[in-house]
Design goal:
The protein is mostly helical. It is built from 5 helices and 2 strands. A two-stranded antiparallel ribbon has the order 1-2.
């Protein structure tokens, strides 16, 4: 299975004028964690995905999708 979790985290964060550090603080993780999720190096837990979506005021389905 060559599926990856794609995201529009960087785009939405930029729309809101947030830095990686600011978003990280909002959800209780490090800036590096936000960076690795944005760059598809790290797949977030369900809890983190939900927190990111809430912090960015979008649904989790809008923020993340499976890229086949």
């Amino acid at each position: 299975m060559g599926e990856l979790l794609a995201n529009r985290l960087k785009e939405r964060r930029a729309e809101l004028g947030l830095t990686q550090a600011e978003l990280a603080e909002r959800v209780g993780v490090t800036r590096k964690t936000v960076n690795t999720v944005e760059n598809r190096v790290f797949t977030p837990s369900t809890l983190l995905a939900l927190k990111l979506a809430e912090a960015l005021d979008v649904t989790v389905e809008h923020l993340f999708w499976i890229d086949e």
